[in-house]
Amino acid sequence: QVQLVESGGGLVQPGGSLTLSCTASENIFGRYAVDWYRQAPGKAREWLGGLYVSGNTGYADSARGHFTISGDTTTNTVYLQINNLKPDDTAIYYCKTHRHPANYWGLGTQVTVTS
């Protein structure tokens, strides 16, 4: 099974930018999609977007323009860049990949946006 580890979270100020990393234990590019999610306190887990086998990306309507997903094939890492951070971006951010029939999740990284 593939293992995913998120990193890069922390305390940040509104208006800034932050890039999160999701590092896979094996090569995933061209083989499996990787998706980013977040879960804020008291809310359901929300899909933000993903990097697909083709190399294309897709985003939730609410995430488009606010998040940018990219990948680095040399390190098996998928990035989530968050722009113009707002307090309601505070959440645990997760990455996920799928290998039928299972989903594989990282443990998440906390982002807290406060002034």
Summarize the helices and strands and which ones pair or pack.
Elements lengths: L3 E4 L2 E3 L5 E7 L9 E6 L6 E6 L5 E3 L7 E6 L4 E6 L8 E9 L2 E4 L3 E5 L2
Parallel strand pairs: 2-11
Antiparallel strand pairs: 1-3, 3-8, 4-5, 4-9, 5-6, 7-8, 9-10, 9-11
Structure notes:
This protein is mainly beta and 115 residues long. It has strands at residues 4-7, 10-12, 18-24, 34-39, 46-51, 57-59, 67-72, 77-82, 91-99, 102-105, 109-113. The strands form 2 sheets. Strands 2, 4, 5, 6, 9, 10 and 11 form a 7-stranded mixed β-sheet that branches. It has a 4-stranded antiparallel β-sheet with strand order 1-3-8-7, with no helix packed on it. A hairpin with a 4-residue loop joins strand 7 (67-72) and strand 8. It starts with a strand and ends with a strand. The model has no long low-confidence stretch (mean pLDDT 95).
Shape: globular
Largest beta-sheet characterization: 7 strands, mixed
Q: Spans of 5+ residues with little confidence (pLDDT < 50)?
A: none
Helix content: under 10%
Structural class: mainly beta
Count, helices: 0
Q: Roughly what is the average pLDDT, rounded to an integer?
A: 95
Q: How many individual β-strands?
A: 11
Report the sheet-strand fraction.
over 45%
The H/E string reads EEEEEEEEEEE
Alpha carbon gap, first and last residue? 40 Å
Radius of gyration: 13 Å
In short:
With 115 residues, the protein is mostly beta strands. The chain contains no helices and 11 strands.
